[in-house]
């Protein structure tokens, strides 16, 4: 087993990541801490800044930043997803989309850090924004996000279904593969998930070395 400490305030994120990483031999521990969130346009920058802000934890540390990007709103709420939901709830978003296309992408950037080395993994899931909230499972935007290929929101689908195709699943599967020293950084059946470079996995010989943060 590999011990990894996931630093997040969000119990939903922790539950999902723990379930997804367990088959990879990862024992995920939870450090419930608020990390400073950089004001940046790109989730990667926010996630990397979060990782850099973690102090006093030994071994592998995991953080992630995620967001919902609505195409017809130029990606809004995107990096502001948490703030927007906390202040406004679903109402204004549903109102804004009454006469606009509803396509959206959920994106998760996970950063695995050990000492001064870190590695970034990205997962995405495409879908649409529902006309009204539905479902009891999950957290955050789950009641209004309908993944492509389904007629139900993440909150209506069984958690195991969400964990098979979500943005978080697609990022965490890559974390699991990396820690297992496995053959790929591409999630099975993920289609849209990719490594930091957007390219396929490096050859086996070059794996196991985490890149130094810039
Ligand atoms: P951290 O402590 O990890 O930062 P957070 O909830 O503030 O937790 P983010 O800053 O990454 O997380 O903000 C992401 C927002 O998107 C937040 O409102 C989440 O509830 C929401 N979100 C992320 N993943 C989601 C998912 O799988 N389903 C529904 N909403 C999600």
Secondary structure layout plus pairing:
Elements (H helix, E strand, L loop, with lengths): L1 E6 L3 H11 L4 E6 L11 H10 L7 E11 L10 H8 L2 H6 L6 E12 L2 E13 L15 E3 L11 H7 L1 H14 L13 E2 L19
Parallel strand pairs: 1-2, 1-3
Antiparallel strand pairs: 3-4, 4-5, 5-6, 5-7
Helix pairs in contact: 1-6, 5-6
The structure holds inosine 5'-triphosphate.
Structure summary:
With 214 residues, the protein is of the alpha/beta class. The protein contains six helices and seven strands, in the order E-H-E-H-E-H-H-E-E-E-H-H-E.
Strand content: 15-25%
Top-tier CATH class: Alpha Beta
Number of helices, counting only DSSP H or I runs of 4 residues or more: 6
Secondary structure: number of strands: 7
What structural keywords apply?
26% helix; globular; 6 helices; binds inosine 5'-triphosphate; 214 residues; alpha/beta; Maf protein
């Amino acid at each position: 087993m590999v011990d990894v400490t996931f630093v997040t305030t969000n119990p939903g994120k922790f539950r999902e990541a723990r379930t997804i990483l367990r088959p990879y031999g990862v024992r995920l521990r939870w450090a419930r801490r608020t990390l400073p969130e950089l004001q940046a346009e790109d989730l990667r920058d926010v996630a990397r800044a979060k990782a850099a802000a973690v102090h006093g934890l030994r071994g592998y540390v995991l953080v992630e930043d995620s967001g919902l990007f609505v195409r017809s709103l130029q990606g809004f709420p995107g990096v502001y997803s948490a703030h927007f939901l906390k202040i406004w709830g679903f109402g204004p978003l549903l109102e804004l989309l009454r006469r606009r296309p509803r396509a959206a992408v959920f994106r998760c950037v996970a950063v695995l850090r050990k000492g001064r080395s870190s590695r970034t993994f990205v997962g995405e899931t495409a879908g649409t924004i529902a006309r009204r909230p539905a479902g009891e499972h999950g957290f955050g935007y789950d009641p209004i996000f309908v993944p492509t290929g389904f007629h139900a929101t993440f909150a209506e689908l069984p958690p195991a279904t969400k964990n098979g195709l979500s943005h978080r699943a697609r990022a965490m599967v890559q974390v699991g593969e990396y820690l297992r020293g496995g053959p790929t950084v591409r999630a099975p059946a993920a289609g849209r998930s990719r490594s930091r470079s957007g390219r396929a996995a490096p050859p086996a010989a070059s794996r196991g070395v985490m890149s130094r943060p810039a």
